[in-house]
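User: I've been trying to design a sequence by hand for this structure and keep getting stuck. Would you show me what you'd pick, starting by listing the structure so we're on the same page?

Assistant: Good idea, let's start from the same input. This is the structure you sent:
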């Protein structure tokens, strides 16, 4: 029997990311676990909702660029830290080693196996949050997490999965089955 918990968002786990922006000429980073994939294809768009009270928003509004990096489990403390303190009163520009890509205002994290540079496509002013939608301009991936066919191996990233109910970071489990494939056996059933 199911219990109705009321309007509880049960859409977890979600991927923990680190969003980077340049605010007042300084790179700033925050943890963001409410990330959405807007479409599949080119151009490819991502979205995430962040509270308007955060320091990072101003840099994204101003420069219309940002980065989205995926930390591995080894970066759990640093990821949590940039999600705990604000760039408004703490300098987070030295937490990571940085590198540059194509965009001038999308600071990239060397320690993260995957980093995407995004150009702001749209902002949705949604109550307490800014929903930023960005077009992915470039994706930088550590060779060590690439499979032989050049695609990203999520198991090698060891991503941090975020769960609001337990307020914990979780690991990725084992693969279950092939998509657009395992269900074929039920066709016409
Ligand atoms: C795991 C984790 C996930 C988070 N996800 C979000 C999120 O999706 N949206 C949001 O507004 N804040 C989120 N936060 C909170 C911000 O990262 C945090 O308030 C941060 O200090 C804001 O930094 P800033 O003021 O320098 O921009 C998250 C924090 C943690 C620890």
């Amino acid at each position: 029997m199911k219990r109705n918990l009321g309007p509880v968002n049960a859409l977890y786990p979600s991927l923990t990311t680190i969003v980077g922006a340049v605010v007042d000429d300084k790179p700033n980073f925050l943890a963001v676990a409410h990330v959405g994939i807007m479409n599949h294809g080119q151009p490819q768009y991502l979205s995430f909702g962040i509270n308007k009270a955060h320091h990072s928003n101003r840099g994204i509004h101003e420069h219309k660029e940002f980065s989205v990096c995926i930390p591995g489990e080894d970066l759990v403390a640093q990821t949590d830290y940039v999600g705990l303190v604000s760039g408004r009163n703490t300098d987070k520009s030295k937490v990571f080693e940085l590198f540059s890509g194509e965009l001038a205002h999308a600071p990239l994290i060397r320690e993260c196996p995957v980093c995407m540079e995004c150009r702001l496509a749209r902002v949705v002013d949604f109550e307490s949050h800014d929903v930023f939608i960005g077009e992915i301009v470039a994706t930088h991936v550590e060779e060590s997490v690439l499979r032989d066919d050049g695609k990203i191996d999520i198991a090698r990233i060891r991503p941090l999965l975020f769960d609001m109910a337990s307020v914990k970071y979780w690991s990725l489990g084992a693969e279950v089955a092939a998509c657009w494939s395992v269900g074929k056996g039920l066709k016409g059933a």
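That's my pick for every position. To get oriented when you compare it with your attempt: The longest strand covers residues 114-126. Residues 56-63 form the longest helix (8 residues).
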